[in-house]
Amino acid sequence: MEINYIQLALGIFSAMVSGLVSFIWWKIKKLDERREEALQRQREEQEQIKENLRNEILSLKEGTMCLLRNELIDVMTKCEEEGYKRIYQVDNINHMMAAYKGLGGNGVTESLYKYFKELPIKSGKEENNEKS
Question: What does the alpha-carbon distance between residue 105 and residue 107 come to, in Å, rounded to a whole number?
């Protein structure tokens, strides 16, 4: 009879250990699933942030191009009307054109720029002589 109690105790112990191992295994699987879901959400959030940044950079690029184009056209048109350019305008226009082209700009400014480069440069001395 004692053997039956020992066998019964061993059976109960074995079932308890088996149940405990199964429970621990189930908990580990659940934790892994939650971790994977969290990683997936994090990846999706990072992709959304990247997309927002791309859109903001594109908007900034487009806005900068518009401002550069406007300033280039204004200055070069003014110089064309005056029939000459000043040395500081040459330097400014060259820098703006390089930036504008670097951003992907082209078009009307390119033809104005070709004409602008051909205009004579008027020095400060010539302006002072005209005022006198």
Answer: 7
Q: How far apart are CA 97 and CA 110, in angstroms?
A: 9
Q: Band of the pLDDT at 89, cuts 50, 70, 90? A: very high
Q: Looking at the domain assignment, is residue 113 inside a domain?
A: yes
Instruction: Find the domain containing 84 and state its range.
Output: 36-124
DSSP annotation of 120 = P
Up-side HSE of residue 115: CA atoms within 13 Å toward CB? Answer: 16
pLDDT at 129: 54
Environment class of 46 (CB within 10 Å of its CB; exposed 0-12, middle 13-18, buried 19+): exposed
Q: Is residue 100 part of a domain?
A: yes
116 occurs within a structural domain:
yes
Please give the tally of structural domains in the chain. Answer: 1
> 18 in a domain, yes or no?
no
Report the C-alpha gap between 95 and 80 in whole angstroms. 19
The percent of residues above 90 in pLDDT, for the chain, comes to: 77
